[in-house]
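thread: overnight batch results

M.L. [08:02]
morning all. the overnight job finished for the chain we discussed friday. pasting input first so we're all looking at the same thing
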Amino acid sequence: MPLPLSYPGLKCVLKNLETVKRAHIIGRSPCLQKIDKLIPRCLENLHIGKWKLVINKLWITCNEDEIENKKATGTTLVIAADGKGFIKKMLRKFGKAFGEYRSALDDVNERFIPGLPKFSIPINNESRIQVYAIEDPELFKDDFPYNIIVKSISEISRI
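M.L. [08:03]
and the structure it wrote out:
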């Protein structure tokens, strides 16, 4: 059985870890959260806008109207990336967590990226979350043409 890393070892690993992966790992360990505050982050790209946040290759957008109205359904989150590799990796993680909810999403009028999984995850009796990938160079001006769409919809609207 391997020995655990020492404090300097943990510090070195965290310092050289890509920021998005680092945040993912740190979020699951209170011990690492204490160390994380002492180590600088190495970012290739950081952009904070009024309605978007870009960290390296991760692009998160926000709609003010959805925040103010706190809508449970009809909300859409777009995660944009510059390559299919990131999209495939994220959908693979969705598959591990929600594989039983894979769906063809026949009722969705979108041009999906072929070969990638799609999901329809129930929230409750009235709503579901749809997760799928599209290629839309217009959405973020060619920089981030691949998008994962996470959309909450009402079951009533599907009927």
